[in-house]
């Protein structure tokens, strides 16, 4: 009986640990908040709970990544502009190289639908990076 109790506890703990950090959303695969980086930064982008597809059509549960440099998330339904600080990855890219000036910068990963309309704060992740001189 003691064996079954211990075994049950182990199963519960493993299940709990596996579920931690498994919520849906976007994430940086290779960068962490506060990380020091060089001016040329490789960004690996991930998403859980949605499927990546190229821009063009709006399909439920699908979209693509955008990186917003030195800005926060875009509200749900807002169209993400295309400029030097709002970079679109409308071909479905999950990896990109960006250039940053020395100093502190925020990087916001924002997921959006096929018309570049934001899925909102729930589908964004902002980190700060420090670009060394």
Automatic annotation (TrEMBL):
Pfam families hit by this protein: DUF4399 (PF14347)
Signal peptide limits: 1-23
Alphabetically ordered keywords of this record: Signal
Family matches, as InterPro entries: DUF4399 (IPR025512)
Taxonomy, superkingdom: Bacteria
Domain DUF4399: 43-132
Listed name of the protein: Rod shape-determining protein RodA
Organism: Roseivirga spongicola
Lineage: Bacteria, Pseudomonadati, Bacteroidota, Cytophagia, Cytophagales
